[in-house]
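Could you help me review a protein record that somebody else here produced? Do not assume that whoever made the record got everything right. The record follows directly below this note.
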Amino acid sequence: MAARIFLHSLQQALRSVALLLFPSVFIALFAWATAGSNSGNTSDPIRASSWIWLAAHAIPFRVNSLELSHSVSGTGALSFLPLGAIFLPYLATRSGFRRLIEMGLNSRGARIFFIFDYALLTMAISYFSRSHSLISEWKWAPLFGAGIALLGTANFAHPKLEFIKFPIYLFATLCGIFLLAFGTSLVSHFAIVKDLTTVVQAGWVGGGLFLMVQILYLPNVAIMALGYFFGLGFSIGQGTLISPTRFSLHEIPAISLLGGLPTGVAHPFRYGIFLEAAFALVFLSFIFFSHSTFGQRQRFALTTIFTFLSLFAAITFLSSGELITKALSPVGVSWWKVTTEMGIALIGAMVLVIYLPALATRVRKS
């Protein structure tokens, strides 16, 4: 029985890999053919398709020597990857696992084998796609692959996950507000956005791919906007900081979305910290009104806060990183700073919403 589950799980894991890898191969070959090449060797675009697949899993790369222009080469790491791309392997693994369950196999065993097989396939693709110029962190690849497969096989309708749904919806709403604010800034700095797009000179094929990449970077931008309005700001390279009260910026990478960055300090936006306070109060108020006793409220609040902060730390960590050269490191928010600030806000709201009313009730009874 175990052997049967393993074989079917491996089959569906391979299918999940192929659902994203084959379109990546087509895109890489098409871009390679239309851009022209001095070499007829198709191994380069095939390797590039593997890099696209790995980047969609947020697996960082180590850059040994990558030509950025005719005279400039970059060394460092590539870990500032589009966070929105994770949705693609998530859909692929979800489709594969759904087909696996439809075979009538034991769901728990099938899930374990599926995650294990997908993690091994991720490590294999990462290892065999290495080149002299760009190497993915293949030793960490199984962790990222297992994480994606874990999400793809999760049953979000399970009653045990109900407790985290409201905070996630609330957080998504907050990010949506920040994206709307950033969109306004993007429109007001349209000239800069146009210049950044012109510099790339992608052509009509590359232009379409470039637009797709910009869309996938939107979650990264939402987290950067969150860091900005929360007062901590974010960085675009060494020695830089963009916040409402401090502005230091040397250069902007050729990512059109970053054309919407502020061009100086904006002190009124420092009051955006009140949005974080409001988020925390609504978060804990929902817990307060969902439970009737102090013990339930306290237990539920601690569990929910810990789970949410773990997810928040993971999202903010993956949304930032290095962009090829040491000069563009870090790019994005400081994940541990924004997580610490969020934790302080949530604990403070817990004291106000849960502990103080309980203390007041005890004082009245005494």
